[in-house]
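for the recovery benchmark. tokens below, seq after
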């Protein structure tokens, strides 16, 4: 997704959402808890934190991924998922820059 616009929204509870908007109505929204101290650091820091969170989601396994891998091991078939390459991570970090 090519990022065309970035919006930062906040509510009265201090929850901040960074939206990355792309062509054709594509949107990725990252919501940060009001307890996160970073929202006071300014827009650039918020956008950088949102990018960090997206990379973490792409790199780290979910509970469902682990369950699927365990199921695959139990049935003696190879895992269906591989870790992203460093070039994919770098591309995600560059998103919106």
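predicted aa per position
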């Amino acid at each position: 997704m090519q990022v065309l616009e970035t919006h930062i929204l906040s509510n009265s509870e201090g929850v901040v959402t960074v939206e990355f908007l792309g062509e054709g109505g594509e949107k990725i929204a990252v919501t940060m808890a009001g307890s996160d101290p970073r929202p006071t650091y300014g827009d650039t820091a918020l956008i950088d934190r949102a990018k960090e969170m997206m990379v973490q989601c792409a790199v780290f396994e979910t509970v469902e991924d682990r369950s699927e891998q365990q199921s695959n091991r139990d049935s003696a078939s190879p895992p269906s998922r591989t870790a992203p390459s460093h070039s994919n991570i770098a591309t995600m970090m560059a998103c919106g820059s």
